[in-house]
Structures are given as C-alpha cells and as structure tokens.
Amino acid sequence: MANQGTGSPSTISVLLNNGDATFAPDQEYGVGVGPEAVSLGDLDGDGDLDVAVANDADNIVSVLLNNGDGTLAPQQTYAVDERARDVAIADLDGDGDLDIAVAGASTLSILLNNGDGTFPPRHTLDAPGDEIALADVDGDNDMDIITGRSGYTVLRNNGDATFAPADTYGSGSAEDLQLADLDGNGLPDIAGVSGTNLQIRLNCGPFGATIAAQPAAVVLLPAGGGVAELTVRPGGTAPYSYQWRR
Ligand SMILES: [Ca+2]
Ligand SMILES: [Ca+2]
Ligand SMILES: [Ca+2]
Ligand SMILES: [Ca+2]
User: Fold this and answer.
1) What is the mean pLDDT of residues 58-70?
2) In DSSP terms, which residues pair with 53 in a beta bridge?
3) How far apart are the CA of 219 and the centre of ligand 4, in A?
4) How much is the pTM?
5) Which ligand is nearest to the CA of 66?
6) How far is the CA of 46 from the centre of ligand 1 (A)?
C-alpha cells in the first residue's frame, strides 16, 4: 500500500496476514517522494514476492526485495520519467525474469531485469500514461503493454521488449485500468473508469488469426498412404478463411 503524499520521506505499508484474515500492525518502508502505486513480483527469482513502487514526485521507481519473511530490504532506486504514475511487472523480453514498466507523464519507462533484481538504466517509449497494465493481448505469447490516459494505448511486443507502433482506442480519460478476459474468447479485454462511467473494450482479435502452437514437423501418414484428419481452431474475428498446403 502506497502512503500517498508529497512529504519526504514517503513510505509504503505492508500488513502481513495473521492467517485468519486479520492483519498484523503495518510495517512501513521508506521509498521515494509521492508514491502512487505498487506492484508485486519475484524480481530476484528467489521465490518470494518483491515490491516495485512508482514515485510521482521525484521521478524514481523503488525496488524493495523481500528478505524471505515478509520484511523488505531497503529500497534500491532507479530513475524513470517525470511523474511516475503507475507500475507493472512482467517478463517483457522473454528471458525468464520479471521486468518493470512504469507509466509516466511524458514517456513510458522499461527496466529490464539483470536477472538478480537489479536493473540497468531504463529504455523509454513515447507513450505517456497515468495507468499501465501488462498482458498478452494479441495471443503471440509475449507480454504487451496497455496504458491509459487519453483513451487506451496498446503497444504490442515484438518479443524482445521492442514494440510495434502504438494503437490508441478512444480519447476519454482513463482513470483505472484492469485487463481480464471478460467474454471468454481467450483474449484479455480492457475494463477502465472514465469520469463516472465504467468502460469495457472487448478484444475482438483485431490483429488477425493466430496460431497458438505450430509443430515444426509432423508425420501424419505412414508410408503407403491412408487418411489423415486435421483440425483448425482459429482466433480472431469471424468469418475465417484458410488454406491447406502440402
Ligand atoms: Ca524475491
Ligand atoms: Ca525479463
Ligand atoms: Ca503479445
Ligand atoms: Ca476477451
């Protein structure tokens, strides 16, 4: 929990569960100035959840590694864009460790994990945002970035934490952002708040049909012939078309 405010030092609070849905008194940890959002993930790969914090007022993200018992080590800080508003954690470059993406006032910052919960200087993308969430929106098995500010901006991952040109949907304010498959088609949809309205944007597969798994080589028939049966299950938006080649 981020203890918002622009005083220095600012803190986050951790309330450990007693195991019966009651919570021990909060433990406070120093972070940057004006913490706005926290995200959890095992950043150093030791099996426990660590904490990343977006600090709005001093342009840093704080990383607090878990000591293994729910207490946190002192923060390590990394420079990000001015006015860090939100933070999300996922493996963006596909190397198996969790990376950090931070929504900022003028650019989006990406910190790629060295593998041990430390991070080299950020990469930036021209995609300002107040909200950020990560999910595989196009079904190609890498994590894409969705930001919210004036509408929702989708940045599709090329697989190596570089991104295709942004697609933006809508232009209204986007004050919160959650991704989940609301219509059961296997693709994450967007739920957000704009003013007093709840906004839902269903992901109808605008990126075309996808093949989720494609074996490199398959022997369908033994020598001498016979009959083989193939089944296609397309994603994307109907109507579908396909071709067989031999
Ligand atoms: Ca950890
Ligand atoms: Ca990674
Ligand atoms: Ca993807
Ligand atoms: Ca969906």
Assistant:
1) 96
2) 38, 62
3) 34
4) 0.81
5) 1
6) 5
